[in-house]
Acyl-CoA dehydrogenase
Amino acid sequence: MKRTVFNEDHEAFRETIRAFIEAEVVPVYDEWFAAGQAPRDFYYKLGELGVFGINVPEEYGGAGLDTHKFEAVQYEETARAGVNFGGSGVHVLLALPYIKMLATDEQKKRYLPKFVSGEEMWALAMTEPGTGSDVAGMKTTAKLSEDGTHYVLNGAKTFITGGVHADRVIVCARTSAPREDDRRFGISLFAVDTKSEGYSVGRKLDKLGLRTSDTAELAFVDVKVPVEDLLGEENKGFHYLGRNLPSERWGIAFGAYAQAKAAVRFAQQYVQDRTVFGKTVASFQNTKFELAACQAEVDAAEAVADRALEALDAGELTPAEAASAKLFCTEVAHRVIDKCLQLHGGYGYMNEYPIARLYADNRVNRIYGGTSEVMKSIIAKSMGL
């Protein structure tokens, strides 16, 4: 079946990004892996390549497009090479939609040119210690000063991807107490300058996977946030978060599918080269059956991921459909990558092989952006259960 989701422009971008990865990432990726993060100057290179500006209006230095298909190509190409671009994914997939949706013209003029160039890297700080998926339970507060010029931010966040290198962070905080009939009320969003006094980055978290993506704890002690950096209206933050969750979950779904596809490629190459008992591992019937089953699952995940991508670009991807795509694609990737690692034997357990890193990187897909259990709850609710 011919794939129809991408056109000539996307394939030209694929060639560009593949060449960029081969030249700028693959030769130094082991260094990034050992350091636990991509270097800050790498993001300037992505800015120069135009990756950050694809969906940014032309007046702010972007390409003025409105599509997630170039992001999708990037997911496929990074997975294919067994690398990732550090914390840059949250910069585009998580932060940009809030800027485009909520920022005033004045804010866009301040934020977007530096966003496009990589001069200001953005992150999203939602999760808190002890709250996890319960966003409405957050304790971080932002209180308006008596003179009305700024908010005073206090609290802590954890598991913040891109948090070490971030120059601005969209922080979710309580500006009002929850209502008795609506505990989601009272949350607001702020574009916080990480150079602000009282803002601090705690330890860089030691993760199982995604080793080159910096993930941090953040703390706010009487941080003054100018009222000019409030995004959208006060107390409507939970509503805004809900509007952007489908795109975030699509991104996780598509990324998981791309990882599964890459895993089959890695395994196929390995079993054709590896010899056991005088024969290639690929020549054994079990190998053929395992890889055939994996390929069938990847084909199905690709169809689901592509369908969700088309719906997202059309503005029609519902929360339940996004949850379904995330649940299916991440569970497929879990099964496929595990089988492909098994086909590598002992070498599959070595970090020098991309399948080992992929195995560790993939595990979080069923946790962040809402756990698989949360996805099932959303889907069940949409079924009237």
Q: What stands out?
A: Residues 8-87+105-117 form a domain with the Butyryl-Coa Dehydrogenase, subunit A; domain 1 fold (CATH 1.10.540.10).
